[in-house]
Specification:
single chain, 12 helices
């Protein structure tokens, strides 16, 4: 048998928490000393271990209490429900990550906080957590979608900042001739970043460019607005024509 202090030391659960579990009838001691001190047996220790495991899985104390007091046959269903909830939470976190990346992108590119733009970005991902994935489904097969997601996951802070810098520089020269040396240098930098992402997978690269062109006016692909996409398409076309002539 274990006193409450001994159980606390054995499991790492504070006495205050054990008191609370006793109060809400989640973990009641099996017996007590003549002086009224609570005593826990091995069965109580096992129940506490179950409680801790279920808490780690994300179950609430009320859910844990209900499940522990019900038939074992409910466990599989309960864990499946918990998995489903966690997957939904993961989707929400991914949507939040995309929204925050978009906000960060906007601040870096605009060099100021444009709240209407930030509001549009956040509202987009609130409205449809899988907005970008849904767009991809129209252009890529399942294997290609996984590869695109993998490429995006591998992007680090330096990649994002480098793209932000290039697009910022492109915005600054939109009124210049795409044949100019300055614009052609940007076209080289642009395509180098594209090549770094896709290597020699020209099919995937081409499909991705189609997605961006078709949805360049959407906040989902900010900052690739229509003007930037059309301008860079002309500049890159000129760049490749020159390479063929050399």
């Amino acid at each position: 048998m274990y006193s409450i202090g001994q159980l606390s030391k054995k499991t790492g659960v504070t006495v205050r928490t054990l008191d609370y579990y006793d109060e809400i009838k989640l973990l009641k001691p099996s017996s007590a000393t003549e002086g009224g001190h609570r005593l826990y047996n091995e069965g109580d220790v096992l129940r506490l271990q179950q409680i801790l495991a279920l808490k780690y899985m994300g179950f609430s104390l009320e859910q844990i209490k209900r499940n522990l007091n019900e038939s074992v046959t409910t466990w599989e269903q309960s864990i499946e429900q918990q998995l489903s909830m966690i997957r939904e939470q993961q989707k929400e976190l991914q949507a939040l990550e995309q929204a925050l990346s978009g906000v960060l992108y906007s601040i870096q590119l605009e060099e100021e906080i444009k709240w209407p733009l930030i509001f549009d970005i956040i509202r987009l991902f609130q409205r449809d957590k899988d907005v970008v994935n849904h767009l991809y489904e129209k252009y890529f097969n399942e294997e290609e979608q996984k590869k695109i997601m993998s490429l995006q996951t591998e992007r680090n802070k330096d990649d994002v900042q480098e793209w932000a810098r290039i697009i910022h520089d492109v915005r600054a020269v939109l009124n210049e001739n795409p044949e100019s040396e300055k614009v052609q240098q940007l076209a080289e930098q642009w395509m180098k970043k594209v090549h770094d992402m896709f290597d020699d997978d020209h099919v995937l690269k081409g499909k991705m460019w189609d997605v961006i062109k078709d949805h360049s006016g959407s906040v989902a692909f900010y900052p690739m607005d229509e003007e930037i996409v059309q301008f860079m398409e002309r500049a890159i076309h000129i760049m490749y024509e020159r390479k063929e002539e050399e």
